Amino acid sequence: MANQDAPILYGLMAELPSAQALTDAAAKVHAAGYREVDAYSPFPIEAVSEIVCDHKRSVMPKIVLAGGLLGLLGGFGLEYWAAVIKYPLNIGGRPFFSWPSFIIPAYECTILGASLAGVFGMLFVNGLPSPYHPVFNVPRFQAASRDGFFLVIKSKDKKFDRTAAKSFLEGIGASEVFDVEY
Length: 182
Description:
- By secondary structure, this protein is an alpha+beta fold.
- Helix content is 45%, strand content 13%.
- It starts with 8 loop residues before the first strand and ends with a strand.
């Protein structure tokens, strides 16, 4: 029977000496077949981002489009309900359903829906708010905001084997390899 109090392994974290070393290590990790990888540095490194993200398509455009379409339909529906169903007023002999007058408010509702979907979708996709992350359990990780460069191979990776991954990270120039536990 497994020990219930034993910590669960999130992954292995390699500390690297420079941004170039992080870029090279990320390329080697990707070439070795690891796909569940995260990189941390005090400043954005575009080359590392391209390697680690593995050119995954973002779901954000679809979320924003859906929010815009819902805003358009909601705004247009509200105008239709108000002008045709609930409060029909014959003003100047025009029809109750005078759709050209509905365009501008419906367009504004489209913008509102898309922007709200963008903000809340971004929070959801990024997993925010997230006041805790397992990498904070590694004492050296505090350097990631100043001058530290870290690469994490997650234990949920299909290719992950603790001993093989540790020796691999040590072999690609890591100054130290840490266990990251939940």
